[in-house]
């Protein structure tokens, strides 16, 4: 008989495993942040080791910082604030979670993700006005020292600005590769009332001019205004192209993105498949470590696993229904 891996408290709104799968962070509707750890190295069950009040507003998203920068979690709250909490050890006292940075702006933070390159840690945050901000950590030993590196809206034409944009949700996924000489890149999409902002775009850092450039747009001409609910960049284990999944109102599109830019600096894109068997909107997707299996979660509960065969045809491998 299957046993639960971890039991979350009533009122839990979001959760995230750390990079090693050893710890689970969970946010609650009352603004509390819980950290669950394995009982011991041989146990497969998790218990709450720390619980703290992170906000007076409910927490809607949690994200772990990459492990080489310590044990720390970013929290997005219902009021749109973003904060980073770090586990600190002082003397012989038990570890304590403390606030190390709070970001407050006039617009709400909708999503946040962290990316690592050869030189630094970067954080990309998407906001309710359609803007994205990229911060860089100035000191790897001080998670409170962040510098704003760039700020722009999610449009191909950098001249255009949509000041009255209203975005309900946003989704970000960093390129998981960390190869030598490979520049930082991520995919960003919005669920907004401004069609130009919605379509997912791949942004890549241009070190020669010290700026971020849109190098690909993952939408067919008739789909560019579709609201995007989730994006997921697959790990690459030797393919000559990247694989990115995009969930919209029409289903889940699997895109192949080339690695060699054309004369305009753009990457080639090909829509390889459309998975439209879901009965409701898909709000979360995760790839396995090999980038071969995609897990998707629908708004009404079911979790599905997808794989492609050797001919590139995608099929549903398994489906899990909620027990209650």
Automatic annotation (TrEMBL):
GO terms for molecular function: structural molecule activity. InterPro entries: Sec13/Seh1_fam, WD40/YVTN_repeat-like_dom_sf, WD40_repeat_dom_sf, WD40_rpt. It comes from the Eukaryota. GO terms for cellular component: nuclear envelope. It is found in: Nucleus envelope. The keyword Flavoprotein does not apply. Gene3D superfamilies: YVTN repeat-like/Quinoprotein amine dehydrogenase. GO terms for biological process: protein transport. Keywords: Nucleus, Protein transport, Repeat, Transport, WD repeat. WD repeats lie at residues 275-307. Belongs to the WD repeat SEC13 family. This is Protein SEH1. It comes from Theobroma cacao. The gene is LOC18606669.
């Amino acid at each position: 008989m299957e046993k639960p891996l971890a039991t979350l408290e009533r009122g839990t709104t979001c959760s995230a495993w750390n990079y090693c799968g050893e710890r689970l962070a969970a946010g609650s509707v009352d603004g509390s942040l819980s950290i669950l750890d394995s009982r011991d190295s041989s146990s497969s069950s998790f218990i709450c080791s720390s619980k703290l009040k992170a906000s007076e507003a409910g927490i809607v998203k949690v994200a772990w910082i990459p492990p080489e920068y310590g044990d720390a979690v970013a929290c997005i709250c219902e009021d749109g604030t973003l904060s980073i909490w770090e586990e600190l050890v002082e003397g012989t006292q038990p570890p304590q979670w403390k606030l190390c940075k709070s970001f407050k702006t006039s617009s709400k933070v909708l999503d946040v993700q962290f990316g690592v390159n050869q030189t630094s840690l970067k954080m990309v945050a998407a906001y309710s006005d359609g803007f994205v901000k990229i911060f860089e950590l100035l000191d790897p030993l001080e998670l409170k020292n962040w510098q704003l590196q760039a700020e722009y809206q999610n449009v191909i034409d950098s001249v255009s600005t949509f000041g009255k944009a209203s975005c309900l949700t946003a989704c970000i996924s960093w390129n998981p590769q960390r190869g030598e000489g490979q520049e930082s890149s991520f995919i960003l999409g919005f669920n907004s009332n401004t069609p130009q902002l919605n379509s997912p775009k791949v942004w890549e850092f241009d070190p020669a001019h010290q700026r971020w450039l849109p190098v690909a747009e993952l939408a067919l001409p008739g789909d560019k205004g579709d609201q995007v609910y989730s994006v997921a960049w697959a790990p690459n284990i030797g393919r000559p192209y990247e694989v990115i999944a995009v969930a919209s109102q029409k289903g889940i599109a699997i895109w192949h993105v080339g690695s060699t830019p054309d004369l305009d600096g753009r990457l080639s894109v090909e829509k390889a498949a459309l998975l439209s068997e879901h009965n409701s909107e898909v709000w979360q997707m995760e790839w396995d470590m090999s980038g071969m299996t995609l897990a998707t979660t629908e708004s009404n509960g079911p979790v599905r696993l997808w794989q492609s065969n050797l001919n590139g045809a995608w099929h549903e491998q398994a489906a899990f229904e909620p027990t209650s």
